[in-house]
Amino acid sequence: MIAKNTVCLWFNGAAEEAAQFYAKTFPDSAVGAVHRAPGDYPAGKEGDVLTVEFTVMGIPCLGLNGGPEFTHDEAFSFQVATDDQEETDRLWNAIVGNGGKESACGWCKDKWGLSWQITPRALIAAVTDPDRAAAKRAFDAMMQMGKIDIAAIEAARRG
Prior knowledge:
Blueprint lengths: L6 E5 L3 H11 L4 E7 L12 E8 L2 E7 L11 E6 L2 H13 L3 E2 L4 E3 L5 E6 H7 L4 H11 L7 H9 L1
Parallel strand pairs: 1-4, 5-8
Antiparallel strand pairs: 2-3, 3-4, 6-7, 7-8
Helix pairs in contact: 3-5, 4-5
């Protein structure tokens, strides 16, 4: 059963593949029901996968195979707070290594164009440090990074 509030993500025929990838990559994630089209539609035929119910880290989502008309962009992203460098590396590498692309400041895109912010909790603490000079040093270091390097952020924070 679909949740009262669900994030609907538009795909060009790859909703089930994406949902399976998210379920195996992120904790507290799973694929639920897969619904097939009861008739032909502009992006597919009767019997094709139309929607996929899934969760990503506890967030209910619906993948809709709507066709090529709309694509993902950075206006929507999942922000994942990581606890250490190992988790940061694992998630970043899973996304980028599965046909995704690196971006800046902890951002990357998966192969379906969906944006992810792989954000260590240490980075959040550093850039919100009450010592504004320390926060700026950490922020400036982050601005030079793709994947976040926690040791480098902490070193910058310390000065």
